[in-house]
Amino acid sequence: MNSANPMSTPPNATEKGAGKGMVTFFERLIFRNRPLVLLFFLVVSIFLGYKALSLRPDASFNRMIPTGHEYVQNYLRWEEMLAPQSNVLRVIVENESGYVFNAEYMETLREVTDAIFYLPGVDRGNLKSLWTPNALWTEVTNEGLRGGRIIPDGYDGSEQSLEQVRINSQRANMIGTFVANDMTSTIIRVPLTDVNPDTGEPLDYGQFTQLFEEQIRDRFNDQGVTIRVVGFAQIIGDLIAASADIALFFAVTVVLISVLLLLYCRCWRSTAVTVFTCILTVICQLGLLTYLDFGLDPYSILVPFLIFAIGISHAVQNINLMISEMSKGSTSLEASRATFRALFVPGSSALIADGVGFATLMVIDIGVIQQLAITASLGVFVALFTKMFLLPVLMSYVGVSKAGLAQQKKRNQSSWPTFRRISSLVKPKFAIPTLAIGVVLLGLGYYESRDLKIGDLDPGAPEFHAQARYNQDNAYILDHYTASTDVYQAIFTTPPEQCSQFAAGDLVLQFQEQMREIDGVEAVYSLYDRMKFKIMSVNKGNPKWAELNRNQYIMNDARTGAPAELVDRNCSIAPVTLYLADHKADTLERVTVAVESFARQFNTDDFKILLLAGNAGIQAATNEVIEYSEKLMLILVFAIVGAMVWMEFRSLKIAFALMAPLYLSTVLAEAVMANLGLGVKIATLPVIALGVGIGVDYGIYLYSRMDGFLQQGHRFQQAFFEALKTTGTAVAFTGATLAIGVATWIASTLKFQADMGLLLVLLFVWNMLGAILLMPPLASLLVGRKYGR
């Protein structure tokens, strides 16, 4: 065995030729100009830190949907007509005293309706409650049709007027839709525009919901009513409102990691510089977002912590090697330069792999995920500079304390019995069984992940726990109203002025009958239901006439007066609305398959049923995009990160050895998701890509260190053992520390943060264990014979 000092800095095989020249160039550049480097980072940090102060939460309905999807393009084409069923709030005004048809409650309902009407961003023309002019009733009498507004012109709050309002509500079939079945509450339907008409800028959902809280909830909850709200804007608003809790968990995690880092290195100076550099990375990342006119989407709000985690992962390697060098007598400057030479290539490669891995999320045609990809990639770009250039310079000034050096001296004197046992895993007699265990785990992961679903698996908003206010409001609607909040719309199109043809109506009625047979569809309604009612009405209410008529004049008359939500002005678009039991993934898939099957069978050049709109319909399109993109994203992230690893070590075998444990971690994470009932959706899809990006760091650093010892002439097992004593301890510490820090998220009041925390804990631990326990045995079987095991 080679007798070289096992703690000496091993040369890296990649630092030859052009690579060595690049390292030498940057080393001379930053260490000969340390004051200028610090001045540069100071100026940039002040500028970006100032910009970060103006960062605001940013959310958009259109960024939450896959705008490139064929079905969503149908929705966007007729958005003005379909939006009232898609980006809509349902405001429930519950009478705490019970019965709603009393003068005091009706006056409060009128005030609530008026207050909502003037909120910026409300689509006032489509706002609907018992008090709005578009709330109309009709009935059949001996003289023909009669109708009017739900609230009659002569309404005065008397018992007689209130009874008339109740009767009008029944005539308009609003019981179960706008009036609770038990008549203890009513609904105000509040469609929203994606642009604030007062400013011309995108609607700020955080500001809108805060204004709603102040002017509606806080104001009227003291007037004998309880205000409940469901809808996309409220979900986003509640997520933004919870950002303070997210920030608190971030702070707790930072403090916890700092304490663990201090216990590990026993040097407060190194700890302070490391944590400072990581926090500065996050601040500069946020500043860059603002500079590029980006906001921080609620679903991206956890990305800054991931960037902090990446920074810690790389900084620990820096501290570990720095302490090792100074324990041999090097000055802080000499140790810092040696650390820079040893870590620049593997560290830069790992960070670039991280950034490229995050960038693969751009293939998912959903704006919020693409923005997350940009946010994460920007963070890695900043980390590349702060970790590779700023941290070494700062460490060259502060060095390592005596306590830190004493701790390292104890480690040097240790016989490392645990690492000696682990290093024996690279022997064939242990490597093969170890890899067999990995294969078994892979098989179990595949088996358990077979039930992994795309989309939401629970009613309400899965971003929140079941006891959260939003989900309680949603449960109230399900308990007290017949009409579902999960609306799925198909779009029936005809040539202009042809929607009232008998053949058109007959096709839609056939479609409706088939849809009613689908499990999960509670009700179906369209223009042609109203036309049937009107034809019956003009024929003395005889139910025998409740059918479409082949006489075109009768059909044209039946269409007259239909509300804008049922047909457009040109009589060429007639939405068909399906009210679903829920928006679970299975329900949406069944309905989508049924609609697509009918369309393929019966669509003609003139009459077509297109998908889709409504909040549930758009969710179905989102699920389709995620289902397709998940596989593509995983293929790309593994292919691109694998290619980066190959470029680092110039060996396909080593690239495979580093990537295989990451793939196992991914499969196991999907198995856990399937068993815990977590669907693949906007909130969980990026976690796997982020986990792969962070996890590859462990393998790159560890094998890079092993590779250096192999170039010195060590056998494979000895090289692994020496690498474990330095880089291996840092990898184990980093994985365990990040897992412990993120574990605090599981206690979050936000379910999606708790879910992400659990998945990240598993990925951090599994990736760390894979790098230490699986990668070296696999590499030994693939290339170990070349060096001698």
From TrEMBL:
One of its GO terms (cellular component) is plasma membrane. The chain crosses the membrane at residues 36-53, 246-265, 272-292, 298-321, 342-364, 376-400, 430-447, 632-649, 656-676, 682-703, 723-746, 758-783. Its main location: membrane. It comes from Marinobacter mobilis. PROSITE patterns: SSD. It comes from the Bacteria. This is SSD domain-containing protein. It is a multi-pass membrane protein.
